Amino acid sequence: MAAAEAQGGGAAAAGEEEGAIRHRTVTANGIAMHVAESGPESGRAVLFLHGFPELWYSWRHQMAHLAARGYRCVAPDLRGYGGTEAPADVASYTAFHVVGDAVALLDALAIHKVFVVGHDWGAIIAWYLCLFRPDRVTALVNTSVAFMRHVFIRAGAGAVKTTDYFNQAYGPTYYICRFQEPGVAEKEFAPAHARHLMTRILSDRFSERAAGKETTEDATVEAAALPAWLTEADIDYFAAAFEKTGFTGAINYYRNMDRNWELAAPWADAKVTVPTKFIVGDGDLTYHYAGIQDYLHKGGLKADVPLLEELVVVPGAGHFIQQERAQEVSNHIYDFISKF
Predict the structure, then answer these.
(1) Which site from 23, 26, 73, 146 is most exposed, i.e. has the minimal number of CB atoms within 10 Å?
(2) Where is the AB hydrolase-1 domain (predicted)?
(3) Is 319 a catalytic residue?
């Protein structure tokens, strides 16, 4: 078993609030991973995988909700984020690496099988995890990013490379396209701009408008009131982390999209064979990708994920749905995983 160094506590002490967060650093898959945990260590485990540009902290509401119901909640900072190590090599951020991190983390914590909950890049990693190692997953609740075989996996004679697909669909100013060239994204996402960037990205809810242009053009959002679901303390937490680490590790996930697409070719015709619930806000940019609503609602997702049990579209919700609609999403997760 990999070594684990406790920074917070072990099992919750008698009388301790189950929702209290414990922090530790775990050595897994060759890197040091910061992990936040809550709930009894004897409880059934839920692994939370965050997205861009986020941290374990994005799951704070769901962790409290599920810990209070007896679940062991495990939320790492993914590689390159927060307190987790950030390898310098861009090629160290493939889906193989990050799925490897997740499996090694479970091994380090002596957890054989988990419920998995993902959002944004965490959802992509969760889809890959369920393809590569379904034996480690009891059930999946994914949010925001649907399973998109043509984007994630090189499949079929007419396959189009992931970055070519986004360039053709949305043009070179689209954020995924802008992120490909080293140095360009780092200038836009400088650590000194972390507070402004996090305020703007979270407040904009990563809309289609926001995704199509640089995020440092307009500072007026700083003066505007934060949405009701977001506090200054929340911004402080995110900003402090990215001021320290920068955004390069996070951006490197995008720089491996083409590499992931090629590496996943052995799973070109594979299905996601774990019980699944998918949740998306109708204001999320991912819900407005070309053809995605037909794919979701006319059987495409069900064909790729045959054990899809529920598809939930939340009216009026944006991209950061687990924070924006915290209680609703927490209820959806609990209602689903409690059946198993």
Answers:
(1) 23
(2) 45-324
(3) yes
Q: How far apart are CA 139 and CA 7, in angstroms?
A: 29
Q: Are 318 and 281 in contact, with CB atoms under 8 Å apart?
A: yes
Where are the domains positioned within the chain? 21-338
**Which candidate in 93, 254, 287, 334 is catalytic?**
254
Catalytic residue among 77, 101, 120, 284, which? 120
φ, ψ at 163 (rounded to 5°) = -70, -30
User: CA separation (Å) from 331 to 115, 133, 144, 280?
Assistant: 15, 27, 16, 14
120 tagged catalytic: yes
